[in-house]
Amino acid sequence: MDSETEQETEAGHGASEAPLEEGTASDIAADAIAGEDAALHALADEHHAEAHGPLEQFEIKPLIDINVGGIDLSFTNSALWMAIAVGVVSLLFIAATRTQRLVPNRLQSLAEMLYGVVASMVRDNVGHEGRRYFPFIFTLFLFVLFGNLLGLIPYSFTYTSHIAVTFAMAIFIFIGVTIIGIARHGVHFGRLFFPEGAPLWTAVILIPIELVSYLSRPISLSVRLFANMTVGHVLLKVIAGFVIGLGAFAVVPGVIPFAALVAITLLELLVAVIQAYVFAILACIYLHDAIHLH
Amino acid sequence: MEGSIVDALKYVGAGLAAIGMIGAGIGVGNVWSSYISALARNPASKDEIGANIWIGFAVTEAIALFALIVALIALFS
Q: pLDDT for A253-283, tens place per residue?
């Protein structure tokens, strides 16, 4: 295509001028191709936007390209928002605990409340032995909570809406809990799959069921968070599309989906908190199973 | 021609996948109705049940989301 157009343009000029005009000729050819390409791209983009509109917000874009030995370790927008979440949590707790008062101010009581919620969660669900795992559960809870909440800011990125992130957390919890269980009980850990007191013949049914339910834990834990976040954001985008489609400033039709959008945003705020809570509480329950074996 | 049939069937598949949400809808309704009737019988147990109800809700709701994910995969891949 390229060489053909070039040749045609060259043929139009005199043979002696050809070397001089070559640059211009190829420029014209390149322009023609670029124009065609742009038209094609516009068409593709239009199609792309139509088909993938609500899912575009989940695109991972590399901000700083880092490539180590063929492995893509780029600093992406996902990594940026994880760093922001960690920064916000750190700043919140540093600011809240800088001046420790007997009668807490607003910021300190927020920090104390978060601490209290997770502390009572660990105490109720894991028991006394769970105290040493409290920092882990607290970190997990805050990381997921702030990921969910920061993701609700328009034009931000929700890293918890990626199964790569949630599954990484879930598989670490799963492996960690299994190691804790085996370290604590040794071979007796197998009792998790066959409870004491059950008739021996039920082992044929019980062990496969318990094994499958145990192995599916990281999948259900990660998919729950990822699906909730993804679906919530897709829903918000779709309803926002209705607002734009009906006219944001037209009084009669546009305000109806806009009101729905406000309501759904509030619902998403609730879901963000609940899912972080559930993620942490399920980690506690898995920990309880490993420590107490049912 | 063949592509258009596949495209049409994508929507049918997504619709079929969404049927799975019926079960989750019944389940979530059950969770909350049991919560309210339990509270009516014993209002003092609110704190005790209150924390656990969210686990039941989240576990049931996850089923609906699995169905929705299958539907989305069918639509957008």
A: 778 888 889 999 998 998 899 899 999 999 9
d(CA A149, CA A140): 14
What are the tens digits of pLDDT across the range A84-131? 999 999 999 999 888 877 788 888 899 999 999 999 989 988 888 888
Q: Which residues of B touch A224 (CB under 8 A)?
A: 58-59, 61-62, 65
Contacts of residue B55 in chain A, CB cutoff 8 Å? 278, 281-282, 285
Instruction: Give dist(CA B54, CA A274) in Å, integer.
Output: 7
Cβ pair B60, B27 in contact under 8 A: yes
Encoding tokens for residue A12? 């139009």
- What would the two tokens of residue A47 be? 């199609």
Q: Closest Cα to residue A213, out of A227, A192, A199?
A: A192
Q: Within 13 A of A111's CA, how many CA atoms are on the CB side?
A: 18
The whole-model pTM stands at 0.76
Cβ of residue A230 closer than 8 Å to a chain B Cβ: yes
According to DSSP, residue A191 is labeled G
